[in-house]
Design goal:
Number of strands: 25
Number of helices: 2
Structural class: mainly beta
Helix content: under 10%
Strand order of the largest sheet: 6-16-19-18-17-20
Order of helices and strands: EEEEEEEEEEEEHHEEEEEEEEEEEEE
Strand content: 35-45%
Largest sheet: 6 strands, antiparallel, barrel
Length: 343
């Protein structure tokens, strides 16, 4: 874990040149001019503290997917392919294989008119509606004539016999889009229990967070993910484990955390990354470059405030530090004032 303080929502600190008290007199009475000096403006901004938690970018755990029954595999999707609701996972004997449907219940029985009512029927009807085949459907737990008609229309669109019956081998139920991780069978193989290895389509970061750092994270909280090239993308904390484990003897106990990316990084399948968590350090404070601070002989600090063609020392108290800047408070200093900065 790496921590630091950075600036957010701040205008750039403008640095200009001034000439202090333009005319002085040398020992021989000759007028001279002083050397121009750098100045910067006092600005108001927010300072936040960053904690960086090391994680691994990927697509999560793989799940094997296979098919039942007889048949020969005649087409397979390539690794990296994203499959969505209604897509076929492979082809069997030259026609569409099982279709992807969304839901929480596996299809555990043949569905046809006359079967007992159940939540699996409502799930099927919801998918048919989502795919554009449910104009006359009522999404309920009853497999009626409208459900049969919708199933037949769906089967026709896939080049299958219009039986009006949906068998467990006809669909694979998942929670959302999936990504093909690996082909575990080849074209020409017979159907088997493992044909593809898939993951979620959502890119995720897996982290093992030490117990003393868990307070930095909240479920559904927005975070940044810093990639190997130092660029950042948005992420959301989607899972925080409830069990602490020790990976090796003498190590700290950690909890598994998962962060989902807002959009996938197409150029990376896996990489070490940092999850960046920000917490407020100071809000709406006056800041100056650290180089503007003047250490006083009697202790404490001051800034050299520009007043017309001359300057004056103004005592200040310092607070949080940022990226080359520091929070200041004190009488006689305000946003927009110019201060001298050391070279």
């Amino acid at each position: 874990m790496i921590a630091g303080v950075v600036v957010i929502a701040a205008a750039a600190v403008a640095v200009t040149m001034i000439t202090r008290d333009s005319t002085t007199t040398a020992d021989d009475g000759t007028p001279t001019t002083s050397v121009p000096r750098e100045t910067a403006q006092v600005t108001r901004t927010d300072l936040v503290e960053e904690d960086k938690l090391r994680g691994t970018l990927g697509y999560g755990d793989t799940i094997p997917v296979g098919g039942d029954g007889q048949g020969t595999i005649t087409d397979l999707p390539e690794p990296g392919t994203i499959l969505k609701q209604g897509d076929s996972l492979w082809q069997v004997d030259g026609h569409a294989g099982p279709a992807l449907m969304y839901g929480d219940l596996p299809l555990w029985r043949p569905l046809r008119r006359g079967v007992d009512d159940g939540a699996d029927i409502a799930q099927l009807e919801q998918n048919l509606t989502d795919l554009g085949f449910g104009a006359d459907l009522t999404i309920d737990e009853d497999f009626d004539s409208h459900t049969t008609a919708a199933v037949k229309a769906w089967q026709e669109s896939r080049g299958l016999k219009k039986t009006g019956i949906v068998d467990p081998a006809d669909v694979v139920v998942v929670s959302g889009p999936i990504r093909v991780a690996e082909q575990r069978a080849r074209v020409g193989d017979k159907l088997s229990a493992e044909i593809l290895s898939v993951t979620t389509a959502q890119q995720v970061v897996d982290l093992d967070v030490s117990v003393d750092k868990l307070s930095l994270l909240e479920l559904n909280a927005a975070v940044d993910v810093e990639l190997p090239d130092d660029s950042r993308v948005a992420g959301t904390v989607t899972s925080i484990g409830r069990s602490a484990t020790v990976k090796q003897e003498g190590a700290s106990a950690t909890v598994a955390v998962k962060v989902s990316l807002g959009s996938p990084i197409e150029s990376l399948d896996a990489a070490p990354v940092d999850v960046v968590v920000t917490t407020s350090k100071a809000t709406g404070v006056l800041v100056v470059p650290v180089r503007a601070l003047v250490a006083l002989a009697e202790g404490g600090y001051a800034i050299e405030k520009v007043s017309g063609a001359s300057t004056e020392l103004v005592a200040v108290d310092i607070g949080a530090f940022g990226d080359g800047i520091v929070e200041i408070t004190g009488d006689g200093i305000a946003e927009g004032d110019s201060v001298v900065v050391a070279p």
